[in-house]
Amino acid sequence: MDPMLDFTGKVGLITGAASGFGKMLAEELGHRGASLVIGDINETALRQVAEELAGQDIPVRALRCDVSREADCKAMVDTAVKEFGRLDMAVNNAGIAHDFVAMHDIDEALLDRQINVNVKGVIFGMKYQLPALIEAGGGAVVNTASMAGIGGAPKLAPYAAAKHAVIGVTRTAAVDYGRRNIRVNAVCPYYTLTPMLEGSDGIASGGDAEKTLSMMASGTPMKRLGRPEEIVAVMMMLLSPANTYMNGQALAVDGGVSAF
Ligand SMILES: NC(=O)c1ccc[n+]([C@@H]2O[C@H](COP(=O)([O-])OP(=O)(O)OC[C@H]3O[C@@H](n4cnc5c(N)ncnc54)[C@H](O)[C@@H]3O)[C@@H](O)[C@H]2O)c1
């Protein structure tokens, strides 16, 4: 197998694995030899994903988890170590968006929810993942940030605040744990066609969803939105055992939007 894509014997943990990027990443890693602990707050959808993976002979354990709860983040790591003996990679991918909102209309509950899920989820995740990775002799962490973590995101200030924080803690962990042979990077997608964007309660669902999506697409150099597999390909590259010196990066996967 191409060493870039050979995950044989590796044990990985993915949050937000019941849908979108997380689900697709679980399939890709599983097909390339990884054993997986997958977590999500949506237990029904998670169970279905676990059944699909197990049906393809991928070693998998599924755990209902709410990443805003520290105990749940710990349980994910404990499960990997107990069931598979180690942890080699962790993907803190669970996240939530919100409806477009002007800065002067933001309420505290919305802001709290963004910070609790999108920021605490990543910090609590790494709090328990990093010691397990040290124990394994090193490994890789990928945090799912966003282009909203790199620049301004119109009418998405709470989400942008949270994703900027994700990049901040990614870089900090990279600096602090590099000497332990741990690489920590973030992937920063532009708008990509997952349920978060196009689902019935996705961020483009209010008003004319088709018009919103087409406006988002026309503003990009490639004149289209991202496809989930295009983000997952970069997550695989960031996790790859053959990618040994990339650390502390926040990688834009945006069809060229940041080149403007
Ligand atoms: N789709 C995009 O346009 C886009 C762009 C940039 C960044 N992202 C980020 O990508 C990540 C994955 O999003 P996606 O597009 O695959 O969306 P998605 O909605 O398809 O998947 C997100 C998953 O996270 C789970 N989740 C939500 N809150 C959780 C919690 N508290 N604990 C555990 N699981 C929880 C959901 O149940 C869902 O299965 C998110 O962090 C999101 O912010 C998405």
Automatic annotation (TrEMBL):
Any keyword Oxidoreductase?
yes
Record flagged with keyword Oxidoreductase:
yes
Kindly state which keywords UniProt assigns to this record, in alphabetical order.
Oxidoreductase
| Species of provenance | Alcanivorax dieselolei (strain DSM 16502 / CGMCC 1.3690 / MCCC 1A00001 / B-5) (Alloalcanivorax dieselolei)
Q: What is this protein's name?
A: Oxidoreductase, short chain dehydrogenase/reductase family
Taxonomically, the superkingdom here is Bacteria
Assigned protein family: Belongs to the short-chain dehydrogenases/reductases (SDR) family.
User: Which PANTHER family did the record assign?
Assistant: DEHYDROGENASES, SHORT CHAIN, ESTRADIOL 17-BETA-DEHYDROGENASE 8-RELATED
NCBIfam families, per the entry: PRK07231.1
Question: PROSITE patterns under this entry?
Answer: ADH_SHORT (PS00061)
